Amino acid sequence: MRARILPAGALPELKTLEWVDQTRRPYREGDMVYVPVREEYPCDLHIPNRRRRGRGYQRLGDTIIFHGRRPSASDLFDIHAFEQPSCILFMPSHTGRCRIPACEVISGTPHEVLHRESGFSYRLHPANVMFSQGNRPEKERIGSCVRSSPAHERIADMFAGIGYFTLHAADAGGSVHAMEINPTSYRYLQQNIRENGLSARVHAECGDCRDLLSGTYSRIIMGHFEAEAYLHDALCHSEAGSTLHLHTLDPDPERVAAMVLDHGYDAAITVHKVKKYAPQIWHSVMDVVVE
């Protein structure tokens, strides 16, 4: 944890200070208090995170989310002692094209949270919209790709959600056309664009991305497991030099190359593993460079 050391008497003021990471609790030791610091502000020291043994979970703000199997009584006792969350949710899956969480409330009341990741702020309601922390390296990779591009990029984010990839791409200097079909996610997308100061670089629209794509793009982000079904539409808005980032659970470069060939182009395809999705199944991204 990144922290600043303050007199214990400063505790009542902490909720008003901009640099305080409100998603974590201060730690008091005698007359001093160790206050967690947001990523973008300087700190006095780094405190190693406490080690915990037990099943994995996701923390968004003050809410804990369990995926996979339903948490046991011992899992819940452990997480209450370690994290002291205000709400615990069990989320075995996401359903439908809009990726709506299948959610069971274990304790507390679901509510909107503020989550900070890689220097960005995300507002969301965990019971209503999805957020995958396991994709963090891929989000950062997209930002690096845009930042290292020799030319200014016009980017399409076909399944923008609440801004997972949009914020990284826009912050790296791209002009992003962000499309989201779920009205709830779209509302948070708009809010997150504003709160991260990226309104000038993002044009957001709510609707079916197939109807919203326009012109040609330097880069097209297809962050949905059904992305291959939308590849024809993406290729209609690509040109030589365009890069498509196609998310999939079944990467097949030969099949995708054949689809690109049908549009009169060749393709250089590289497969990146993002994270384990299930036994023997990986969440992967195919980088498809149109030639």
Highlighted features:
291 residues, Rossmann fold, 3 domains, 7 helices, 17 strands, globular
Describe this structure in words.
By secondary structure, the protein is of the alpha/beta class. The chain has three domains: 2-46, no CATH class; 58-111, no CATH class; 133-290, Vaccinia Virus protein VP39 (Rossmann fold, 3-Layer(aba) Sandwich), CATH 3.40.50. Helices cover 21% and strands 33% of the residues. It is built from seven helices and 17 strands. The chain has a seven-stranded mixed beta sheet. It has a four-stranded antiparallel beta sheet with strand order 2-3-1-4, with no helix packed on it. The longest helix is centred in the middle third of the chain and has 13 residues, at 183-195. The radius of gyration is 21 Å and the shape is globular. The relative contact order is 0.09. The mean pLDDT is 92.
